[in-house]
Write a structure and sequence with these properties.
Alpha-Beta Plaits; eight-stranded mixed β-sheet; five-stranded antiparallel β-sheet; Glutaredoxin; 14 helices; alpha+beta; binds flavin-adenine dinucleotide; FAD/NAD(P)-binding domain
């Protein structure tokens, strides 16, 4: 692995939540990593992001969960909202119907987190730079050319002076209007906006009667959050081409709620739509896409960053293997992550349709709410929003490709948890028979795979091979004793983690 000021294994365009997560992942494997971010730290749009169950489970497997939970406690303005969430039986909404999580879906974390994007970025930047990634702010990717050996990336600083940086691979984590995607020649087909949403952050002047929470009526919908954010959504009003203003938001609030309001101060206003797009491919040669650069959709249910975090965690160890000369896993990145994005695009389009004004949609919502009283329906939608329904498949064994739940484990070196054993980002072979049979077979992979014999043996399987992202690669129901069984394990180890070394 090499690096000097202008030569890296991986250049990541974009230091948003996804680019920074990927940098943290790559550094676990010693990959020299440069993140190029065009804005100053904290200068991005101030969104408060809902972080759902699967992301939290993964953060626990990276020892970042404690930092995120601590950061949420320090976030001003969310106490009332948090309290309301804790006092309701619902854990999340679908199209503004706050009835998710009432079925049987079990998650390791009891509720979602609400974190300002700036906080997420600062926690991730600390981890990324603390483990050796270089993060350059105020620098923009403006072009790239790739050949068989690498990619030459042109970057420009705020003064307009440009430099060429060489990288083995480039990942575009540069958002919905991705420059990397455009220069890589990757199409971004999808559907045009049907609705316009406006968002403002600030305090209102004078007495106001705008309620907290989410409301839908004949003119659109309106939402007010305790941290000062106000949203509207309207159909059949095309977004103007001019920059959004506080006056435009106030006019929209008036159309939707009938209330005339003025802001005393405005920290931020923005406009967004339900434009829904998916990259035609996630990779061309040495250039890959992750996060919003690969998919955009209406932010209903707060799923975009969650989807992107998990792109990054799926890609990190595969890209690290490619940097070490094993590019074969890279194709599985798109094969696994694209269907997950397609499902999110499906549910966000459906949610936008269910939020439209009108008596027919009223009826549809009422019926939908009735259906969501059935556990099986509620579980289905809850799993989709929480990201816990992901199944990468790829085997006749239905367990393979599913996320492995955390559990306490008794090992030779004392009690631990599965989530803690994955914190180095190494694949994990758990021998649950209390013996070392599986570990012996995996010995020629010990430089890459961590093997642990578990002493309490009432587990549902005899051995589990878990990928660095926490998903199951292989399982055995009986101790790995027969030659066929052993060969099965060797095949799984080789296909995911490379050839054995001679020992
Ligand atoms: C109102 C709203 C609310 C949302 N709420 C939620 C939520 O609750 N939960 C959730 O999961 N998602 C939510 N989302 C979606 C979420 O914000 C995005 O999915 C997420 O930010 C995507 O992260 P990213 O890192 O892929 O891209 P971005 O956050 O867009 O970051 C891309 C970064 O790349 C930088 N960049 C762009 N071009 C270049 C370039 N050429 N060179 C260098 N740097 C560049 C940008 O400055 C930016 O920092 C919401 C979206 C909106 C609009």
């Amino acid at each position: 692995m090499h690096s000097n000021d202008n030569d890296y294994d991986v250049l990541i365009a974009g230091g948003g939540p996804v680019g920074l997560t990927l940098a943290c992942e790559l550094r676990m494997y010693g990959v020299s990593t440069l993140v190029v971010e065009r804005l100053a730290p904290g200068a991005n749009e101030p969104r408060t992001l809902t972080i759902h169950a699967r992301t939290l489970e993964i953060m626990d497997r990276r020892d970042l969960l404690t930092d995120f939970v601590a950061a949420e406690k320090l976030t001003a303005g969310l106490d009332e909202y948090r309290e309301r969430l804790e006092n309701t039986s619902a854990r999340g909404h679908f199209a503004g119907m706050f009835i998710l999580g009432r079925g049987t879906v079990a998650t390791e974390q009891h509720r979602e987190l609400l974190l300002p994007r700036e906080t997420i970025e600062s926690v991730l930047t600390r981890r990324a730079t603390g483990t050796g990634a270089v993060v350059r702010h105020g620098v923009e990717v403006v072009g790239l050319v790739q050949n068989a050996d690498g990619v030459a990336v042109t970057v420009e600083d705020a003064q307009g002076s440009s430099t060429v940086i060489r990288a083995g691979y480039v990942v575009g984590c540069d958002g919905g209007r991705s420059t990397v995607r455009r220069h890589a020649g990757i199409d971004f087909p999808g559907t045009e906006p049907q609705l316009v949403s406006r968002m403002g952050l600030g305090s209102l002047a004078g007495p106001d009667h705008l309620p907290m929470g989410w409301q839908r009526n004949d003119h659109g919908w309106f939402m007010r959050m305790p941290d000062g954010r106000i949203f509207t959504a309207e159909w059949d009003h095309l977004a103007p081409q001019t920059p959004v203003t506080a006056e435009e938001l106030c006019a929209s609030i008036h159309r939707v709620t009938g209330e005339r309001v003025q802001f005393a101060d405005v920290r931020f206003v923005s406009r967004f739509t339900d434009s829904t797009r998916l990259a035609s491919q996630y990779r061309t040669g040495r250039v890959l896409l992750a996060g919003d650069a690969a998919h955009v959709h209406f932010p209903a249910g707060g799923q975009g960053a969650n989807l992107g975090f998990q792109d990054a965690v799926n890609l990190g160890w595969k890209l690290a293997a490619a940097c070490q000369g094993r590019p074969g896993l890279l194709d599985t990145y798109e094969a696994e992550r694209r269907p997950v994005a397609e499902r999110v695009l499906l549910n966000t389009r459906a949610q936008a349709a269910l939020m439209r004004p009108g008596p027919q949609v009223d009826a549809l919502r009422a019926l939908f709410a009735e259906l969501m009283d059935f556990d099986v329906v509620n579980d289905h939608l809850t799993g989709a929003i929480y990201g816990t329904d992901v199944h990468y498949g790829g085997s006749d064994d239905p367990r393979v490709g599913r996320f492995v739940a955390d559990r306490p484990l008794k090992t030779d070196s004392g009690p631990t948890r599965l989530a803690e054993l994955l914190r180095e980002g190494r694949p994990l072979l758990l021998d649950l028979t209390g013996t070392s049979t599986a570990a012996r077979i995996a010995h020629p992979w010990t430089d890459r795979v961590r093997t642990v014999a578990v002493l309490d043996t009432d587990a549902e399987a005899a051995a589990l091979l878990i990928r660095p992202d926490g998903y199951l690669a292989w399982a055995a129901d009986a101790p790995v004793r027969t030659p066929a069984h052993a060969e099965d394990l060797r095949t799984a180890l080789t296909s995911w983690f490379g050839d054995p070394i001679s020992v």
